[in-house]
Specification:
With about 325 residues, the protein is of the alpha/beta class. The protein contains 12 helices and 11 strands. The chain has an 8-stranded parallel beta barrel with strand order 1-2-3-4-5-8-10-11, surrounded by 9 helices. Strands 7-6-9 form a 3-stranded mixed beta sheet, with no helix packed on it.
Length: about 325
Amino acid sequence: MIDIAFCGGVELREAYRQAQADGYALMANNIAETNILVGLLEGYTERRSDLVVQISAGGAKFAGGGDKLAGLRVLSYQVRELGERYPINVFLNLDHFTVKEMDLIAEVIENRLVSSIMIDASKEDFEENVRISREVVRMAEGSGVLIEAELGKIKGVEDEISSDEAFYTDPEEAVEFCKRTGADLLAISVGTEHGVSKGRDVILRTDIAAQIHDRLLKAGLSIPLVLHGTSGLLAAQISEMIRYGICKLNKDTRYQYEYARAAYDFYTAHADSIVPPAGGEADTTGLFSGSDWSPNKDNFDPRVVGRAVRAQIRRVATELIDQAGSGGHTLFKGS
């Protein structure tokens, strides 16, 4: 057993409990490489907020050069090693893992590589969704790893998951689903979309979220609710959803765009020091040794643009923390 539990499910459960009690949410932020992770750590430390990072199956595959398990190990080690250097609690969630990754889920649970796992069987019918989700809950029993399940379908494409249609979560089914599966968190569908969407065009069914929250509480189930596909939501929409029991909000597409934009802006601003003048020969073999022009290493070193990306991610992270209200709410007990 590798056992690299940084902040496990016990601490994460308490973080969600506090969010429910105090009326704020935790953003759950997807990563696939180091620059986004470092930017998040810096932003969350600045705001003194506990941090939830996520790895999708596609993100793991990318980080592992095509090997999902290798990618999971690499990213989980990065989260642990870097997270230990910041005065906040850092949690790691697997995002949108499906029945196709059951072997990976078992490996991750056995080696305590994460704090929580989201099993996505939402494309299946109700009974099959219950069966698969319950199976993962049983796999995690005694491990301390929390299990998030999803009921309802969210429109759009998120990594390796796609749906052309949205199906709202039924409040009555939500109670039965949670009772039968034993899931620790429930992701619901109330109108958000995966991928690029305009918040002002998203019609949120806050009435459904309120009904789900109310019925779960009346059934004695104080289960944290999760909203996926939140990258395009406006600040007012996020605040409204928090009032209806949402305490985990997933963010991926926003960070992907900010990453690309930071890199684009940097390279555009320094194009003359990286790209040969018009008509010039790109003598990369000899690094322009036979040319009157040469590139500026201060601008093409990948660490330089990496710093620009990290700074942008940090800025966006603090903005989203303020929207979710989690600033100042860390359970970190270190010195």
